[in-house]
Amino acid sequence: MTNRAKTVPIILGSNANALGVVRSLGENGVNSIVADSEKGVAGYSKYARFVQVEDCTQKRAAFSESLLRIGSDLEAGGQKGIIYSCTDGYLYAVGENYAELSKHFIIMMSEWKTVERCLDKSFLYQEAERLGIPCPRTYIAENVRALPGCKDKVPFPVLIKPAVTVGFSSVYKKAVIANDEEDLRRIQQEICAHGLEDYILLVQEIIPGPVTNLYTFAAYSDKTGSVKAYSIGHKIRQSPPETGAITAGRVTDAEALHVLGVKCIKELGFHGISNTEFKLDPRDGLFKLIEVNPRPGLYNYSATAAGVNLSWASYKDAVLNLQGETESSRKEVVWIYDFTDFVRAVYSNKRKGWPEYHISVRDWFRSVKGKKVYAVWNPRDPKPLFAYIAEMFAKKFRH
After folding, report:
1. In the chain, what is the straight-line distance between the N-terminal and C-terminal CA atoms, in Å?
2. Are 138 and 203 in contact (CB under 8 A)?
3. Per residue in 337-348, is it b (16+ CB within 10 Å) or e — as a string?
4. d(CA 227, CA 270)
5. What would the pLDDT profile of 347-371 be if each residue is shown by its tens digit?
6. DSSP strand pairing (334-336 vs 48-52)
7. Burial 247-261 (b: 16+ CB within 10 A, else e)
């Protein structure tokens, strides 16, 4: 039996992030186990089988036990699991139990102390400043009561977000904009009303420029922190339109960003697949660090479509001991979150109070001109699309 047959990827999460990893491995002949508390689109892929586990955010100990049971079943069959965490919640659940889990699995990420440094933006920005990596001007509030102190440090309008999103964004918002002191007071009250008053908060200057100035350096780095495969892309749209997650993006090239991305990952000593976001500041022409996600990003499959398979590069390194020259994306590709991007750009943004982000059908088609790849739809693996459509209708019905 080959190493490939003996080592089974365990993909934690079943969203579009996870589906990208599943397909990137499956297209190289390696099928996965998708493990999540609820079955999402990745669980329907022909390249995977779904196993339900306990909710990692609500029942951390029970989740670890259910994951160890998967490991025991694999070991009984002479196999071993390699873990890919595809959400921040799973990063925490695996990272905090890293020592025990690493006895039974290959874990495709650094030890917890390194991952935590990436997830904690209050540390990340201080480290970036030390390394000379440009960042937005930032004020760190130790809790919500310290928010008014930002007035003397960062001019309005400002972006307010938690230093650590896990446990915060599931209750309130990932980020919110305050245009003046009245907004700031309102946001303070909202955060307190949600019981989040003791979270560390970051108050940042808003870098001007369109969403297309938001770039991502997606990479796989080995155990030395050396980047062995990478892809660079920029957002076309996100949702919510001012502070949200990508719904359309374009793989492209930006050598200055490659240099910064490599430096950031290397200095952090991160091992695994990462997704580092920068924004190009038109005032000085510099790429400024926004965040480091120490896991596969939402549009990781765009890299595979553009010629560099980050998931496969990680698997080859960890399982097959194959590592060649550094790989990079070789062609331009547009990634689209299927119907979600179209509906929100053409219809929902205007209805939800963002008329300035509303575009026509013709403009939507112009914005995604070029070779396309989709988050869910793939003619070689069609079943996830049917699950995605069913979930869209279910949400509409519940709403």
Report:
1. 50
2. yes
3. bbebbbebbbeb
4. 9
5. 999 999 999 999 999 999 999 999 9
6. unpaired
7. bbbbbeebeebbebb
Contacts of 280 (CB under 8 A, 6+ apart): 209, 213, 215, 286, 287, 288
pTM for the whole structure: 0.94
E strands along the chain, which residues? Answer: 7-12, 32-36, 48-52, 80-85, 105-107, 138-141, 158-162, 176-178, 201-205, 214-221, 227-239, 245-252, 272-281, 286-293, 327-328, 334-336, 372-374
Question: Among 393, 373, 313, 378, which Cα is nearest to 46's?
Answer: 378
- Whether the predicted pLDDT of 219 surpasses 90: yes
Residue with tokens 């990420």: 109
Q: What is the pLDDT of residues 34-62, one digit of tens each?
A: 999 999 999 999 999 999 999 998 888 99
Nearest to 21 by CA among 278, 387, 388, 381: 381
| 360 or 325, greater pLDDT | 360
At residue 203, the 3 state secondary structure works out as strand
Amino acid present at 189 = Q
Residue 303 and residue 333 in contact, taking contact as beta carbons nearer than 8 Å: no
C-alpha distances in Å from residue 325, one per residue of 3, 27, 110, 228, 237: 22, 21, 22, 7, 33
Are the CB atoms for 8 and 315 separated by under 8 Å? no
φ/ψ of residue 241, rounded to 5: -65, -20
Q: What is the pLDDT of residue 1?
A: 41
Return all residues near 229 (Cβ < 8 A) that are at least 6 apart.
Answer: 219, 220, 303, 308, 309, 310, 313, 326, 327, 328
Strands 176-178 and 7-12: unpaired
Question: How many residues in total does the chain contain?
Answer: 399
Q: Name the strand (E) or helix (H) holding 343.
A: helix 338-343
Cβ proximity of 43 and 322 under 8 Å: no
Write out the DSSP string of 170-192: TTS-S-EEE-SHHHHHHHHHHHH
CA proximity to 154, closest of 204, 208, 207: 204
Q: Is residue 274 a contact partner of residue 118, using CB atoms and an 8 Å limit?
A: yes
Distance CA 9, CA 71 (A): 11
